[in-house]
Amino acid sequence: MSLTEAENVFAGLNETGLNDMLRAIFTARPRLLNYRTSPAVTNNPVSASAWTTVPVIAFPGVPGGIEYAVQFDIPQSDIAPQSAALPPPLTLGPGQISLRTAVTLTLLCRSRQGGNDQQPAGTSISVGLEAAAVGRIVVRSVGLGSGSIAFDLQRVELVDVTPEKLESLLECLILTFLRGALASVELPFSAIRLGAFSLNLLRGPESEDDQLKLYGAAV
Q1: Is residue 213 predicted with pLDDT exceeding 60?
Q2: 192 in helix, strand or coil?
Q3: H or E segment and range at residue 18
Q4: pLDDT, tens digit, for every residue of 187-202?
Q5: 20 — phi, psi (to 5°)?
Q6: Predicted pLDDT at 116
Q7: How far apart are CA 206 and CA 80, in angstroms?
Q8: Beta-carbon count within 10 A of 68 CB
Q9: 218 φ, ψ (degrees, to nearest 5)
Q10: pLDDT at position 73, please?
Q11: Contact present, 183 and 176 (Cβ < 8 Å)
């Protein structure tokens, strides 16, 4: 699609560039992918700066609450049209973007004193799952020459989880976690500059031809 009369700037980001951007962001800020209540749950990676600390889950009769961790691998993106395989029934429709990642859920299992049918005190139990998500790239906080683009995930599909109701529960949980992890990942318009000018977005972002396309005017 060509520029309209009011538009004199086109900016495009292909999926290779988007994946490079995601890799750079999450490599520099691993805390955006690693969440735990305390080091007692898991200590891999070892560096405390690689983690975001989250509150325990309070539950009656559980002293100290339920401790857990959530970890994501760096996501890989695919911009319409679809070129990466997705688990059914997911498909990548016009204007959509997909992300693939792996997620590890860890629970600190505490036993009762003297119990023989429980895990030993402080044992961490983990499960790894492959996840794919589809959604769109959206605009946030648009103003004259200001604003940003961000992820809006709409659905997650897990691979090889049964029974179906457990799969649906985990998909809801992981979609919630993944939306939260990506909430702070934005590309500001201030990063798209033409010399002394910045982008005033008039149309887009449009996800097509393996690119994110932005149309606007220089301000």
Answers
A1: yes
A2: coil
A3: helix 15-28
A4: 887 666 556 667 777 8
A5: -65, -40
A6: 47
A7: 10
A8: 19
A9: -80, 135
A10: 98
A11: no
Global pTM?
Answer: 0.87
| Length of the chain in terms of residues written | 219
What mean pLDDT value characterizes the chain? 88
The residues, any chain, with a CB within 8 Å of residue 114's CB and separated by 6 or more, are none
Distances (CA, A) of 11 to 82, 98, 211: 21, 21, 10
Assign residue 170 a region: left if phi > 0, alpha if psi is -120 to 50, beta otherwise?
Answer: alpha
CA nearest neighbour of 211 among 48, 10, 36, 43: 10
Strands (E), the chain: 9-14, 34-36, 52-53, 68-72, 76-79, 97-109, 123-143, 146-158, 186-188, 193-194, 197-208, 211-218
C-beta of residue 37 within 8 angstroms of C-beta of residue 69: yes
Q: Which amino acid is at 49?
A: S
Hey, what are 125's tokens? 């139990």
